[in-house]
Specification:
With 109 residues, the chain is an alpha+beta fold. Helices cover 37% and strands 18% of the residues. The C terminus is likely disordered.
Length: 109
């Protein structure tokens, strides 16, 4: 039986992928002990920003407040939960949102 990758391994993969997709972007890790529920990553690129909550599987349970902050930040700019099962869809939506503005709401907790 295949084991799921660790969330930290998938998070590193996402950060590396974002670096290739958005040259010059900054990807910052948020501190969940400072504000519980805030998405894991803040992506800054040119004059745009997004947040991503990284999960190792689409079946992972959201922690308290995660859905709230994903929705709040998605209404401000772009925010979504990203996992291996929806990675391509979320990255495509992020690319479109950064290129032409808002695309859709993608929180899936």
């Amino acid at each position: 039986m295949r084991r799921k990758p660790l969330e930290s391994n998938f998070q590193k993969h996402v950060i590396d992928t974002l670096g290739g997709m958005l040259p010059g972007c900054l990807v910052l890790k948020n501190d969940s002990s400072y504000m519980q529920g805030v998405p894991d990553l803040l992506v800054l690129w040119k004059n745009r920003w997004a947040t991503l909550e990284v999960k190792r599987s689409i079946h992972e349970v959201c922690q308290p407040n995660q859905e709230y902050y994903i929705t709040l930040m998605n209404n401000m700019s772009f925010s979504a939960m990203i996992c291996p099962e929806n990675e391509q869809d979320v990255l495509h939506a992020l690319h479109e949102a950064f290129r032409v503005g808002r695309l859709s709401r993608l929180s899936q907790c």
